[in-house]
Specification:
The complex is a heterodimer of chains A (163) and B (149). Chain A has helices at residues 16-32, 44-52, 58-85, 99-110, 133-140, 151-160, and strands at 7-11, 35-42, 90-96, 114-117, 144-147. Chain A is an alpha/beta fold and 163 residues long. Chain B is 39% helix and 18% strand. Chain B contains five helices and five strands. The longest helix of chain B has 14 residues, at 21-34. The chains are: A alpha/beta (163), B alpha/beta (149).
Chain lengths: 163, 149
Amino acid sequence: MAGLIQKVLVFVDGSEESIVAAHYAVCLSKTLNARLTALYVVNTRAVEDLVKTKIFLAAEQEEYTRDIESDAEKYLNHIKSLGRQKGVTVETVQKHGAPFLEIKKEVQEQDIDLLVIGELSKIRSRRDEFYNEAERAMRNVSCSVLIVKDEDRVYEVYESMTV
Amino acid sequence: MALIDLVSEDIVKVPLSASTKDEVIHELIAVLKAAGKIRDTGKVYEAILAREGLGSTGLEKGIAVPHAKTDQVEKLTLAIGISPNGVDFAAMDGQPSKLFFMMLAAPDQSGPHIEALAEIARITRSDAFCRVLASAVSAKEIVELFTEE
């Protein structure tokens, strides 16, 4: 197993699900002695779309982009700290663009073995428009994907893991 | 969290009884209050009004997306309202707005907020879907239109 998974990438977007995924990724990386990278993508594609569709004003574009960059830093630092508490070094990467495309690129550039993402919606829809960025990434990346569920169990495992 | 996870019958009002922009905003806020999604309705109203003051969120083709960041919600929150006859929401094409998506997010959830709004932008590109939504007669029907159930 350790040979199979040497490089792990966890996608973080500020959602509770992605934070649970980050806890899991820290545990998994420690267990497998794998290298862990946390990626946050500032979704400038979505912000641009919102301006194009006039949902956002230009002033909102700047404000929200700044907010998301600040969130990205905060969440990535949090995950670094989660890793540090368990003796796992977490490399952090902040990118700008369309998340599913940036995730795909990061997987290719770093030759990632496993992408870890948070739980997806349980609700199914006929409409492709409802695929969110994590789901789009799952469908597009070249590596294996692990979807983290059962947050209580994940937090329990994380807390009980010794350094 | 995906947009679809935010859609449930308790956050949908069909039909809206409001006949003015201000009444629509109040009615949708009341829906969220009744659903237990927001704390202080007055503060949410102020946040929505502040954004509308910068420029109306009434778009084209009868769609309006009033939105705001507010610390009066725990997490990303959506309300949907349908006005079959339409309401003057100061839309950019001057047409009455029939389909309302009110989105509220906590200040530290800009990422999920953006993505949910982008999902709304994507679905509203489908004229057919918007027409069907605008002609829905119940909250149950709206939820069913979003899901497979």
